[in-house]
Amino acid sequence: MAESARKFERIAFVASEVPEALAARDRLVARYGNVEPKEADAIVALGGDGLMLQTLHRFMGDRIPIYGMNRGSVGFLMNEFAEIDLIGRLQRAVITEIHPLAMKATDESGTCHKGLAINEVALFRQTYQAAKLALSVNGQVRLEELICDGVLVATPAGSTAYNLSANGPIVPINAQLLALTPISAFRPRRWRGALLANTARIGINVLEPAKRPVSAVADNLEFRSIVQVEISQASDIDLYMMFDPDHDLDERILSEQFRY
Amino acid sequence: MAESARKFERIAFVASEVPEALAARDRLVARYGNVEPKEADAIVALGGDGLMLQTLHRFMGDRIPIYGMNRGSVGFLMNEFAEIDLIGRLQRAVITEIHPLAMKATDESGTCHKGLAINEVALFRQTYQAAKLALSVNGQVRLEELICDGVLVATPAGSTAYNLSANGPIVPINAQLLALTPISAFRPRRWRGALLANTARIGINVLEPAKRPVSAVADNLEFRSIVQVEISQASDIDLYMMFDPDHDLDERILSEQFRY
Amino acid sequence: MAESARKFERIAFVASEVPEALAARDRLVARYGNVEPKEADAIVALGGDGLMLQTLHRFMGDRIPIYGMNRGSVGFLMNEFAEIDLIGRLQRAVITEIHPLAMKATDESGTCHKGLAINEVALFRQTYQAAKLALSVNGQVRLEELICDGVLVATPAGSTAYNLSANGPIVPINAQLLALTPISAFRPRRWRGALLANTARIGINVLEPAKRPVSAVADNLEFRSIVQVEISQASDIDLYMMFDPDHDLDERILSEQFRY
Amino acid sequence: MAESARKFERIAFVASEVPEALAARDRLVARYGNVEPKEADAIVALGGDGLMLQTLHRFMGDRIPIYGMNRGSVGFLMNEFAEIDLIGRLQRAVITEIHPLAMKATDESGTCHKGLAINEVALFRQTYQAAKLALSVNGQVRLEELICDGVLVATPAGSTAYNLSANGPIVPINAQLLALTPISAFRPRRWRGALLANTARIGINVLEPAKRPVSAVADNLEFRSIVQVEISQASDIDLYMMFDPDHDLDERILSEQFRY
Hints:
The structure is a homotetramer of 260-residue chains.
Chain A (H helix, E strand, L loop, with lengths): L1 E2 L7 E5 L3 H14 L9 E6 L1 H10 L7 E5 L15 H7 L1 E5 L2 E7 L4 E6 L2 E6 L5 E7 L2 E9 L1 E5 L7 H4 L11 E7 L10 E4 L4 E6 L6 E5 L2 E3 L2 E8 L5 E5 L5 H9 L3
Parallel strand pairs in A: 2-3, 3-4, 4-18
Antiparallel strand pairs in A: 1-5, 5-18, 6-7, 6-17, 8-11, 8-15, 9-10, 9-14, 11-12, 12-13, 14-17, 15-16
């Protein structure tokens, strides 16, 4: 994380489909122009956290910094909206580099599905039958049988989202950690999960998959009837989010921990 | 709950499909005879908790006491297995009377499905989309929007099962209470649920059901794409479980609270 | 709990020592008169929850109903303040009958101290040394060794207070239960406590009391260097709190469970 | 953490006061000799975790690696006991470097007390009166008023100890984090604490200290009637603990997270 020394001359605007976001885009385009995202020095995303995640996914390999401005309902990843001084704000912004999780999920037919997740990879039971999972870390089985609704692996950026609902800990953005968090652990009862080094390779085997079907989800990308999942950090993919100084992601996650 | 003054002359045996349970049944039938369940003074169920729940459901309206003996993997509701002195044990047994929950679940086509639950009624998201639910108690809305994986209503007998995995409290068998427990509450975050009088009528409306499909499950009976659920105790249905004295259900739930 | 058929002609006013409460008392006395508490049909307590607890303690054996009006900072047990229509409100009020806990605490010198608690009895370590406690229920040891900061037993009325901070469940006012809740259980780790019938007699032995001194507190009455404690509900002491209909204690505790 | 290239010729033995530990020391001294701890290449500590903490404190500034062997009741920080091959085991051992927390605690008379903590610094109420604390991180107030039994700051090494009892997360030994964990938070209710960068300076002001006296404890060193505390990692003090490969501290904390 460092103040950016980059120039911000070519800006691309993207917006969510709500009127407030679309109107904001039109006014900003009129004021600052608009280029193709792939040619931009920065992409400005207008909407809520959902749009930010979408935009990060859409330009996953392009290494273009993304600056969100809040025109949506949840704005944890978004800066405050203003029309003026956009170039100045981009130049003063702090750039946070994050890495997604890479998921490889094999389904019952043997097909391997891949997905990337900025927030979390989650496994979840598809029917009333509880999931039975075996968990391994770096190839070593750590839990032979977890009976549960599911389990998730969250990045620090995602630790304030689904992970928090499942009673996982909020993790500072710079901590080199992933949160492995069970969803309604039935046995071992009261197992609360683990904080793992972000170099960990997490393997999950679905036991009795015919009787107990399980889906796997990377952020919003869902695959059904999964039998095996591998999760690890994609260290080769760099994502850049831009935040106004004093409200950077580190500060947001810190202050989220003192919310109540 | 009281020691039974009944006579136990006609016994019906039911068993789960595992060899150990079937063999036990054959030996017990040879020793004590076997009648049709509907004509029995008591039904003896040989297996684990799954079989006990099945047997309770199967003879739901028949008011015949059920005595479980453990030939399965989980035996929280089962007495210790022995071949000898069965009649004596039945005569000395404590009878616990419980009432199931009645669920009425309306699906997206307007069809109303009914189910009875001895442990719990649970609502659960069907896809990666979090459920949005409105909760009311006795006709009064208590939570206008709960974003979550789901929610459950458990009886005291069921409070040690799924309810416990979702961090709900264990409830003594004689407490006149139901546990309303959220599953991974996302917003209001850290909402922990409520203990309600067992006379409460609980209503759950599924919000945005097309985008966020939800299933409803009464014990093991699942209905998909549900839009509205009503849950209340079926006080007119009496179920009788028999337990050896000193190991009755009250004691089991109490000692479960001191397990760790 | 029932609407009162009593007459309310003689009222006694008590107030906490803050100016707002004292001024309210003077105006109400001028309007409605004032009698000695022991001769009153009702005692009106002006202040916050602290004053309500004090007043309940002060007139513990007198069986006079107490109606609180909020002139303090925390008003969970208080009705809304108004000067007008006091007699009408008293006549319409719902009377909730509660029973305190009786504590008998024996100290290292063998002296036995008694106390009554409307909210909770709590045991707590006095120094950095963790407490070691043995817990029994109705004379049967349930936990031979609990290493912890302490443990508490809460009434339903007190379940929203200290018990809640220690992660105990909120209990409806009419549930015939007590909450036994550990404070920072170290071993058995993650032991979460138990809901007990309100007829339970709870015994707590302090182990290694010289090395690990423990105090025992009934509401605000603290005894130091305690070696043994007995706790049970004082069913012979009836306390009457009065609440405006639609905001009675049952409703307050219910709605507290839906707060977040 | 790296395999040690050091030579281990001069060994000092220390033991706890239990017969088993003392007898082990005598046999090991007979076999391997014994030097003054300050002149040793390694100190071998015979006892349980309590002795390990004592030994780390006693030789805090001496930069001598300490190898524990379990002759006590709790051996989370201890290697398995054996008399043979001690030199070989020391040479193969993995050395984990940790840093203590430095506490500066000012009491009501203005006296400043200093202490070092390998596990945690904890503040705790001295009487039945709940503590009121203001919490700041790096000079910025994060919680203006925390009403609670207390609060603690734990190192990763200490995260499996008192921090775990207070429901704090277990932190991997190499994570650059400290756990700030409340003890029975009453208000903000259900505040769960925060994971902070290990460069954080944590300040705690005791509010209303005369009415609500609070003690501060660095591991086992307790100061009473404290009004202000500063806590930060003592990065200039290096402590070295030695572990048999495959059972190093990182692995122990990881496997502790999968215990249940």
